[in-house]
Amino acid sequence: MDKKLNELKSYLDYEFSSGCETGQDYKVFERKYINYLKLVCNVCGWEFVKANKNHYCFTAFIKNNQNNFVYVSISDVRWNKDWYYHVLIRTAEHSKDYRGGPNHYAALPTLQVGIDCLFQR
Prior knowledge:
Blueprint: H1 2-9, H2 24-44, E1 47-53, E2 58-63, E3 69-74, H3 82-85, E4 87-92, E5 104-106, H4 111-120
Antiparallel strand pairs: 1-2, 2-3, 3-4, 4-5
């Protein structure tokens, strides 16, 4: 898991392409990021429900075995490093609940702990 995290960390100094169409560089990054989230889910016994891909950002839903949901969102990667340092997480009632509970944030290395804390609520 550390190898995948370090691979994402290497993007901290990367300047993503920009334009009216999503760049190939972001698509590769997004795939790696989602695969990392799936790995975290697998290790923790959670289910990666789905990802909603946007222009240069994405959202996702994760579910535990008690049918509790957590919503995950990264902001536009072109403007800041929030995708690493300030990942939005919050509880959700189901995989289409985009309003959910109060916003919480976690850095990518501590995202697993943050999600687990939300599941414990």
